[in-house]
Amino acid sequence: MKKNEPFRNPLDNPTADQVIELWQNHPDESERLGLADALLLKWGLKIASGLTALLIAMDSLSGEDALMTNDDRREGERIVKTLSPNIGKRIEQLNNVRDSIANPLEVGEKRSLKTIRQVIRWFKKGDHIAVDRDLYSHHAIYDGNGGVVEYDDYVVKTATLAEFAQGAKIYRIEETPAYTPDEIMERAYFRMGEREYDLLSNNCENFATWCRCG
């Protein structure tokens, strides 16, 4: 590399630690970060990520008085993951738990609830759907033909809409998919039989979102 050529980061979506390491090994010695500067930058970023994580956690636990939207919390999660992957993982788990514990009143006010007959008529293959149970929400991918693929009873399996709903009305989760309906179903069926359920990082909502958005 020529001396005047700009230093380019070869990594896609690098973490803060990776950026610091790259600058410590900069091809141009005059541009390299010294040990003291690297330590100051590293600890400064960890403090910043910790404060961001604390704000997200406090807002997530503040119930109806929360100031952040779900999109705000997820954007904060993304930023913290870049600054400090370990702290970012904890925030992801907190956000996952918060999203899984639904407030039925809020759901009734903000989402259009459908009966099974209405779901069959209006919902489409690959839709992310959910129902509210006593203390949590349960999620699945609708197959477009009266059935779902869900992560339930600790296994990815198929079920009928009636088995999925258990008498509750069904609502659709609005999110921008990264795949076509056929690709979403292929991704869902690909994980059939999986038994790696985890309440914090691999629950039914995580599964449905992964099928649609990656």
Topology:
Layout: H1 16-24, H2 35-60, H3 70-83, H4 85-100, H5 104-110, H6 116-122, E1 128-132, E2 137-142, E3 147-152, E4 155-160, H7 161-165, E5 171-172, H8 181-190, H9 204-213
Antiparallel strand pairs: 1-2, 1-5, 2-3, 3-4
Helix pairs in contact: 1-2, 2-3, 2-4, 3-4, 8-9
Question: How would you summarize what this structure contains?
Answer:
By secondary structure, the chain is an alpha+beta fold. The protein is built from nine helices and five strands.
How would you characterize the overall build of this protein?
The chain is an alpha+beta fold and 214 residues long. The protein folds into two domains: 16-100, no CATH class; 104-213, endopeptidase fold (from Nostoc punctiforme). The chain has nine helices and five strands; from the N terminus they run ααααααββββαβαα. It has a five-stranded antiparallel beta sheet. A hairpin with a 2-residue loop joins strand 3 and strand 4. Helix 2 packs parallel to helix 4. The longest helix is centred in the N-terminal third of the chain and has 26 residues, at 35-60. The protein starts with 15 loop residues before the first helix and ends with a helix. The model is unreliable at 1-11 and 101-110 (pLDDT under 50).
